[in-house]
Amino acid sequence: MTMMAAQGLVIERVAPGSIAAELGMEPGDRLVAVNGLPVEDILDYRFLTCEEELTLTLIKANGEEWLYDVEKDYDDDLGVDFAGGGLEPIRRCQNRCLFCFVDQMPRGLRPTLYIKDDDYRLSFTQGNFITLTNLRERDLERIIRLRLSPLYISVHTTSPALREKMLGHPRAGKIMEQLHRLARGGIEMHTQVVLCPGINDGVELERTVRDLVNLWPAVRSVAIVPVGLTRYREGLFPLRPFTREEAARVVEQVQTWQDHCLERCAHAVVFAGDEFYLLAERKVPPALRYDDFPQTENGVGLVRLFLDEWEKISRSLPRALPSPRRVTVATGVLAEGVLAPVAARLNEINNLAVELAVIPNRLFGPQVTVAGLVSGKDIVAALQCRNPGQTLILPAVMLRRPEQVFLDGMTVPELSSRLDRPVIVVDGPAELVEACLEREGSCPCQSR
């Protein structure tokens, strides 16, 4: 036993009956090496512990170094959880983006919303978008060596000078060099462009899409989403939202690119965010133009998935309910056009009354229209003077899972208490219908 400097991963939990428990590992022990190789984070741990014969180097709480020899099957887990998920400290963003949403947020929201992460490990493990501006040479080598694929990358523009301006970082202009390096290393990438009118649209967008599509199949998708602007932009770079006409032009550009990509590589590759179609009042494309829906978390293709599921479910709706039932379905401004026909069809069911409540965004301002940024206080303000029926139904996108908490920290039970009504959280048309019909055991996320 010797003494070592503190490093590695701190064990937070040891599963009963696991290999680690049999060896006598304890919470507070620090795993610093596997087979003599240092453990920097959970990625090293997963990579190094795949072997069947292991020598683990741990530092106990008293500072002593212990060695554990382990023989296990290839796919056996040691049975330990690490503090911070084995990814602390998180790499923070070094950029000063012209359009950063965090810079536009008011005080008093959930503390985690103010954290600006730009960590390639979170991109691999959780699908977070990163800019690559804080990557060092050893980081690129490690990504390729560990095959951390796919990665989700915020490109915004492939023009070096413009990207440096938009991200406010001197290394931002190296993006194409980095993307080529990752492509040669066998890393698949999903990319996004946050489009700002008059900044990176038009000719600049044409260049960006061309550069990214030329990296197919390493670049698997290119999502084009509109910049989000709140009412808290005092002192920030002047930006404006898209007009209906501008959104329509983006939709037309994307259709042209998709036609080209479908002919060239049998994949659509380039996608417009759902907001563009709703703002332009255009029909969203059929499912075949979304490939395998690679960027739904980025608001790309959710409307199509909703509409396709609704079409199937609407065919088997009952003609009547056994007793009268009145519910309110809440949503953001942007989704009104999608949900209004759904509510109208449900209202054809005898004894069922469905009211669609469109919630204005008082927290961020009227330019923010997506349901995912509606706060609990927004809902209270909109409904406290109205009768939301027997039950209020909310889309799951309004809440952080699994805690079921709104952006402003309000919980579902708190909202239910404020409105004195049961609140049911649904995810998709199937759960929406079940909640409206109040079928037994159909809605797991609710407060009564």
TrEMBL record:
Transmembrane segments: none annotated. Residues 1-42 form the PDZ domain. It comes from the Bacteria. InterPro entries: Aldolase_TIM (IPR013785), DUF512 (IPR007549), PDZ (IPR001478), PDZ_6 (IPR041489), PDZ_sf (IPR036034), Put_radical_SAM-like_N (IPR045375), rSAM_sf (IPR058240). It holds the Pfam family DUF512. This is Radical SAM enzyme (TIGR03279 family). The lineage of its organism: Bacteria, Bacillati, Bacillota, Clostridia, Eubacteriales.
